[in-house]
């Protein structure tokens, strides 16, 4: 039998040669103490049985404290959390769809000290933001570990399904011990709370802003476009062409004919008939001439109109706490965002690229971060939640990338109009990270190749010179957009954190993959590829090599970078996978989660081979092959693998059973890691990283110690020989509890007799200062 448990940040007191200092642990089987564990937080019981019940009690300063609740072994070597799959559906186009469990997150939503589990339901017709077609509704469920459904958020028909559209941030934002959920909503979004027997306890739509209600918007609205709706939308857009601010200012052609490169034959403002004629030309002639893939006659399923909101929900009940307009709104269908400018005409694409995260921007409390756009206009808002209302901490907005012709231009890599933020356009990725990159105790937002400081200013935006063989050798260019990003202490021989990224700019990007200093954005090493370098990963996969290895590959795994050291040296031509990493092994090395589509997910070690085949389960998100979640949610410091069963009837949780000799604080008590776990469901799921170097060669002294050391106040002893009035006086010290002969004693006087030992035991988040006395013994005279 394998048993593991947590070392909490409130318990760890320092570092040792193999881990963290803190309590020893007494292990009980069926009420009998069978072991005392000092060097880890796991135990292998060779004599255990499947029916045995185990409990663990911390031992501090020789005092055994309260034991955990008893638990028994998982019967099948994993735990299945039962799920309640939504009913199948049919789109307005008559296409049937089903549901599968997708991304997951964890948080304590009810304040009981245990994690609840959130699961996003994705319809089988979920779309990338560049893909046409209707999608089913997205649902977000919250479950207890035993499968009890607490609530379901129904996002409604006006939120399209797909990785780019919905990121859910679940975190205790106001510090009351219960997590809230924040995500993008729209008219039609509602929440449903359930009783313990599964019946509906409450159901309510979100509260639409009064201005929207007065404007006639309602929860019955359906803004999904059919192909005919899109054509009508274009007619209205074209009729308003001459009044568009960019046209009025002279930045865009005065007529649509000039924009399309044809003779001007209509008077402006356009009549409805004139607009219809130009729409026909645009759809049937101009768009296909730009690319054979531009079939706008079948453009349907997108939502480019109607209100957009950000809603805060109670994590336990699903009750709406506040709804505000989403900032910034889309403004238009993507015309200003460059969605019509390039050869691929893709309305509703760049405008609907969303990201989200959690960050400790003041170093003390978590803020929610919601972002829109990264190819052209790039925006980000940070909010604080005080339990009653959202307050905006900062707003970042590059402004739109100027274009001379919104139907034929190259807006990528062009500065936005804002003088402060204009240089961050095209630098964002399909994810973001929160990390203290400059060592000031506050998180910054690493937004791909640009980083926003904790106060909302630009810390840096990374550029470099295009090399020989590129599109413009010698020119200064953005590092630019990419798909994969990893922020942690990759190279422990250097101060601070590093960033490993891959970039898709091809011949217009200085690097296909690159390592940078996280504090300055300075390039440490990198390689030009000239192609879309689509995948990248990091991990300590070679314990014989110092630091964390990095690698990257082109689409399809071709032309890989090779496995690289922290200095950029090639260790081998072959590379591990790039879907997701996991800390699974007892030796602190990194493993890789492989498997996509209908393949069985596996956990693979670069030197030892496959360590786990998660039979009967599947990963998510197509070729990305990402699990629902990888995080330290149970047991010791190692990460669990959370994947859906093949039929999505359960979320299956796997945990490592390798016996380790390392005692490490739960990763979830590292603020960067905890924020990264909340962020993991964002768009292209990236691993979660600690603020310190977590690897086989780690220096445990670099792990933050969260307890505060102090010297306990000593008790007083009054010996009155020849009487029955000997006394032990227990002091009041808020950082310690006192035990007299092993029994908890309250402040004040207690009788003493014979030999008496008093021990001070620190409370949570406190520790005994080095060299301080914590035990006193006295012998009272008769």
Automatic annotation (TrEMBL):
One of its GO terms (biological process) is carbohydrate metabolic process. Keywords: Lyase. Gene3D superfamilies: Immunoglobulins. Residues 78-192, 293-703 form the Rhamnogalacturonan lyase family 11 C-terminal domain. SUPFAM superfamilies: Integrin alpha N-terminal domain (SSF69318). The keyword Lyase applies. The keyword Transmembrane helix does not apply. Pfam families: RGI_lyase, RGL11_C. InterPro entries: Ig-like_fold, Integrin_alpha_N, RGI_lyase, RGL11, RGL11_C. One of its GO terms (molecular function) is lyase activity. Residues 1-74 form the Rhamnogalacturonan I lyase beta-sheet domain. PANTHER family: RHAMNOGALACTURONAN LYASE (EUROFUNG). This is Rhamnogalacturonan lyase. It comes from Agromyces binzhouensis.
């Amino acid at each position: 039998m394998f048993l593991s448990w947590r070392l909490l940040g409130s318990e760890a007191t320092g570092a040792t040669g193999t881990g963290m200092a803190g309590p020893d642990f007494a292990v009980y089987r069926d009420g009998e103490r069978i072991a005392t564990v000092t060097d880890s937080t796991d135990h292998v019981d060779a004599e255990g049985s499947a029916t045995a019940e185990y409990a663990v009690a911390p031992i501090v300063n020789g005092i055994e404290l309260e034991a955990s609740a008893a638990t028994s072994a998982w019967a099948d070597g994993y735990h299945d959390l039962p799920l309640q799959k939504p009913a199948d559906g049919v789109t307005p186009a008559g296409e049937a769809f089903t549901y599968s469990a997708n991304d997951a997150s964890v948080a304590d939503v009810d304040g009981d000290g245990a994690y609840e589990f959130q699961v996003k339901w994705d319809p089988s017709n979920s779309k990338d933001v560049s893909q046409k077609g209707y999608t089913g509704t997205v649902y977000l469920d919250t479950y207890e570990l035993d499968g009890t459904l607490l609530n379901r958020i129904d996002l409604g028909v006006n939120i399209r399904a797909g990785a780019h559209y919905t990121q859910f941030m679940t975190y205790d934002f106001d510090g009351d011990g219960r997590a809230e959920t924040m995500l993008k909503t729209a008219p039609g979004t509602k929440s449903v709370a359930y009783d313990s027997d599964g019946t509906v306890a409450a159901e309510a739509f979100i509260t639409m802003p009064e201005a929207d209600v007065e404007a006639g918007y309602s929860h019955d609205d359906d803004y999904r476009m059919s192909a005919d709706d899109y054509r009508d939308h274009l007619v209205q857009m074209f009729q308003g062409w001459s009044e568009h601010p960019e046209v009025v200012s002279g930045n865009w052609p005065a007529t649509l004919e000039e924009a399309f490169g044809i003779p001007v034959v209509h008077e402006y403002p356009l009549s409805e008939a004139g607009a219809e004629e130009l729409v026909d030309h645009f759809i049937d002639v101009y768009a296909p001439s730009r690319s054979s893939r531009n079939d706008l006659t079948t453009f349907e399923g997108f939502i480019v109109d109607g209100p957009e909101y950000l809603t805060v929900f109670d994590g336990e009940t699903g009750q709406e706490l506040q709804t505000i307009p989403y900032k910034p709104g889309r403004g238009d269908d993507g015309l200003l965002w460059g969605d019509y400018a390039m050869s691929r005409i893709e309305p509703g694409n760049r405008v609907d690229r969303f990201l989200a995260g959690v960050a400790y921007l003041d170093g003390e409390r978590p803020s929610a971060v919601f972002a829109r756009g990264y190819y052209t206009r790039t925006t980000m808002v940070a909010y604080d939640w005080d339990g009653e209302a959202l307050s905006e901490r900062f707003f970042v907005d590059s402004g739109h990338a100027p274009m001379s012709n919104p139907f034929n231009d190259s807006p990528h890599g062009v500065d936005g109009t804002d003088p402060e933020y204009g240089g961050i356009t095209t630098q964002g990725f399909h994810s973001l990270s929160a990390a203290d990159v400059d060592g000031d105790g506050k998180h910054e937002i690493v937004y791909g190749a640009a980083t926003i400081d904790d106060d909302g200013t630009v810390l840096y935006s990374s550029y470099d010179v295009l090399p020989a063989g590129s599109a413009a050798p010698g020119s200064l260019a953005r590092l630019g957009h990419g798909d994969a990003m990893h922020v942690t202490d990759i190279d422990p021989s250097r101060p601070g954190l590093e960033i490993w990224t891959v970039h898709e700019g091809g011949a217009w990007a200085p690097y296909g993959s690159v390592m940078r200093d996280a504090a300055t954005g300075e390039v440490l090493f990198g390689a030009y590829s000239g192609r879309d370098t689509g995948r990248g990963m990091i991990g300590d996969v070679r314990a014989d090599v110092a630091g964390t290895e990095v690698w990257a590959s082109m689409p399809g795994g071709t032309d890989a970078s090779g496995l690289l050291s922290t200095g950029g040296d090639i260790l081998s031509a072959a590379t591990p996978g790039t879907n997701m990493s996991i800390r699974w092994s007892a030796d602190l090395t990194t493993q890789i989660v492989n498997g996509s589509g209908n393949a069985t997910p596996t956990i693979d070690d670069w030197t030892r081979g496959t360590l786990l085949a998660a039979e009967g389960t599947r990963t998510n998100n197509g070729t990305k092959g990402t699990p629902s979640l990888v995080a330290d949610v149970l047991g010791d410091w190692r990460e669990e693998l959370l994947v859906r069963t093949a039929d999505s009837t359960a979320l299956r949780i796997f945990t490592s059973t390798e016996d380790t000799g390392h005692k490490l604080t739960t990763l979830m008590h590292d603020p960067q890691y905890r924020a990264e776990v909340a962020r993991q469901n964002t768009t292209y799921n990236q691993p979660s990283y600690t603020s310190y170097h977590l690897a086989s060669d780690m220096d445990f002294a670099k792990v933050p110690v969260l307890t505060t050391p102090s010297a306990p106040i000593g008790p007083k002893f009054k010996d009155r020989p020849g009487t029955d009035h000997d006394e032990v006086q227990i002091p009041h010290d808020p950082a310690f509890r006192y035990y007299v002969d092993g029994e908890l004693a309250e402040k004040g006087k207690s009788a003493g007799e014979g030999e008496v030992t008093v021990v001070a035991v620190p409370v949570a988040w406190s520790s005994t200062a080095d060299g301080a006395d914590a035990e006193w013994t006295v012998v009272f005279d008769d």
